[in-house]
Amino acid sequence: MTAFPDIVAWRAACATDPVIAAWAGDWACCFGIAVDGAVSTFEFIAGAAQPGEGTPSFTLSAPAGIWSKFLEPIPPRHHHGMFAMMYRLPDFRIEGSTLSFMQFAHLARRVLDIGKWLALGNASPAPVSLAPRGGPRKTPKVAGGYVPVTVGGTTYQIYYETAGTGQDILCMHTAGADGRQFHGLMADPRIVENHRLVSFDLPFHGKSPPPEGAIPGSWRLNTDLYVELIMGFVAAAGLDKPIALGASMSGEICLELAYRHPESFSAIVACEACEQVRQRQNPWAAHPAVNQALFVPEWIRSLSAPQSPAEWQEQITWQYGQGGPSVFYGDIAFYSGDWDARDRVGKIDTNRCRLFMLTGEYDYSCTVEMSEATAAKIPGVKFQAMKGIGHFPFAENPEGFAEYLLPILRELRTG
Known about the structure:
The chain is of the alpha/beta class.
């Protein structure tokens, strides 16, 4: 059974870790990691790791069996990250101050990374990311611009990017993110040789600004607004029956588009989607005592699969750290609040628009089982689980995701 390293060596590695050193500042924190009740304590003063004991404000507690799976080079799903374990494993608990944990989740995760790195027999320092590196990211050839979209009397300036030629694919980003998530697909010659990928940033996201006079922190997404923004953009950008592609919240809205506007799309590819997702709203994403730019990337970090290349995972967390005030929180108001299609998914007519559903093995928010149960209610849908992929398929592993997307595109192209 794999176990954490000796506490003295672990603390010493934390004291010399360049990542923790980059976070140094006027702050202090003490927390514990408990294995079968035995607590190892980590104290930081002025951002520097201390050699001795302290009084933990919170403790990450789990049985040895859970930690052993977490410490595997490629952990099984739901054991691959701190928040995945918290969300899906009842025996993994956060004890003590929840506020302190949310404030220092990035620090706790890094200490766990260091412990795992040492437990696997490596010497410190641990790399910035423990995920495998696949090499330099390819740069897509994109063209960008703005179109006005008016919904409910408000005009939004919507930024979009395009790459490739051929059949349009409407690319919709996940909650709190923007169209950069599709740069990996846009750089794939196998896709852009026959398709024009068109991504756009929702208002308040990426390069799409809030409308004039908007209150910072006021963004709240709901089903009707989302559909109207999408259909408004399709019209403003002059797209003719594109293929719709989305994941997570944009995967959910793909199901709504299949229900409301099937004739407007050539096909719909809904990733990481199901009829309803509960308990994913997080008040700490909009809490004034929590640094949103540090917390939100940690909240979503273990939604990616451990096999996904580090260079892409780092882009996801970087983009999530750039979100505006409460933008992620406002998107989750739709994703895990307003969205409830239990009364509608069974009425989707796949004879009017082909529907494909894909869900990653490591997605702990919308699991394979949740997506499969929804797909079972939709006659004619094609569902497939994606091995070794998580919640952000086109962003975390574009080459791996393309292996699932390309057969769909070939099937649609050949009829």
